[in-house]
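request received
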Amino acid sequence: MSKLNEVKEMVQKGRTKKIAGVVQEALDAGADAQEILDAMVDTMGDVGDAFSRDEIFVPEMLIAAKAMKLGLEVIEPQLASGAGEKLGKCIIGTVEGDLHDIGKNLVAMMIKSSGFDVIDMGVDVPVDTFIEKIKENPDVKVVAFSGLLTTTMPALKASVEAAKNCDVGNFKVLVGGAPVTEEYADEIGADGYAQDAGSAVTVAKELIASL
Amino acid sequence: MLSIKENFLETLKRGNPDRYVNQYEFVKLLMHPYWTATPPATPGGPPVVNPWGVTISFPEGMPGPFPIHDEEHIVVKDVTKWKDVVKAPATSYSEEDWAPFVEEMEAIDRNEFFVAPFIAPGIFEQTHYLLEIQNCLMAFYEEPEAMHELIAYITEFELAYAEDICKHLKPNALFHHDDWGTQKSTFLSPDMFNEFFLDPYKKVYQRYRDLGVELIIHHSDSYAATLVPSMIEMGIDVWQGVMSTNNVPELIEKYGDDIIFMGGIDSSKIDKPDWTAEETLKIVEDVCRAAGKRAFIPCNTMGGPESMYPGAYDAVTEAIKVVSKKMF
Ligand code: B12
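response:
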């Protein structure tokens, strides 16, 4: 098996203890860092799709993402700075009052592996903190909010409104989370909605294409 | 008209109930000293460390308590070293500790109601309370042996405490919490779930049966349709909390001879600030018409006879009465 295929398999199966070694071997065998990165990104895309189709579960998705992260650490020094197709910045976080982050993390990982620079603000993020971060990063392309509790839907709405009214830069607002629906996303004025981590990437890419 | 218990038993026998079993009407849930030895977190109160060492917070305005999982508070940071940090709580309590619960138990009319201790968190929940859920889910892959050991340890605690519970409360039922999934999926694949949890649960539920429990009710308000064969093998009689995403009518058709489905009425649909009796009635009626009468107990999916918003649970009870009259 080619070393690149082996790297792909390490990501797909989430071999967190072996991937660093395999990536190093691939580099030693002459593969270039960009090639390895592309292979990992492709594989992560497949993993996200399998998750959307309910073929794999949260643990499989989490360890694949962890494996990719560990693989990335090996090639990062080799990746010429700024190399790779960059899609721009994405600020993401879970809204105030809400501590659920599994879904948000999966979305962040997928968006990151598809080529965005992700600024993850964590959980329970007050509206003002989001706005400050947007102001610090006027080149942000996508601002993504996650909300998992029906009781924090008002915070989601407030976050979307504040972001839309913020007169900095030019970005799109993406929302998601189990209780959020396409209709609700429209109602609160978000630009995009995705129901899972796999489709979040597709929607995020569509959104920036329309900027 | 059959009594509440007779009607429940007819439903359990797949016999001739004369109305729907109405939510939790047939069972009284009892607490026990585990819950009072360390007073639980209260809304707006300070965080408390629970009997397993997990710090639980309950800020004002939150629908419920939850574990704090920042770096400092995670109990098990390295699952291979769980033995150094996990210590199970007491598995027996003094007569004095038991007295208030025994008194409560004695006041229950067993001709009318089942008596069920309320056990939570379940074995899976306990693992992610201790490890933090994402670390925990990855640990099933990365450190399966340590996970098996930790699960065995939690199971031993449950088995031992079951003895003390049954000695004092003499329950004829059990209400056991363990959320195994999200709205649309299980956390673990069914194979992985079975590898880690089937045997431990078989042991726990068998122990309760050996100690006199006749009815095992398991709560998981989630998707878990793919785990129903495992539930049956574990000895679960009633799956409470079955969400509509499981396709309840299809489950009844497939497994209705072996397990009762209690739920179908998603709390997210009926337990909200702007609930109305009319809307609740419509939801309940649709659920009941689709599920039919066999092997089904209409119930709010929440793990207890209550709601987050005042009146929402009782509105479901009233709606079920109305629907029962139409359907029976
Ligand atoms: C795991 C869990 C927890 C864990 C969270 C751990 C963590 N680090 O996140 C813990 C135990 C800490 C917890 C705590 C609580 N929880 Co909780 N929790 C869950 C549970 C079981 C699963 C959520 C989950 O992780 N799903 C898996 C992920 C992969 O799915 P997801 O989050 O939906 O994300 C996907 C999509 O929605 C989407 N997505 C998500 N975010 C975004 C963002 C964008 C931009 C996009 C595009 C897409 C997107 O993509 C994701 C990946 O595909 C749900 C049950 C359920 N039925 O969902 C309850 C649930 C959400 N919790 C609930 C409650 C009530 C609580 C608590 C109040 C405690 C309690 N007593 O139950 C506290 C609240 C804490 C707080 N302040 O937030 C309720 C909410 C009810 C309601 N009225 O809203 C639920 C529904 C359980 C229930 N049936 O009662 N919980």
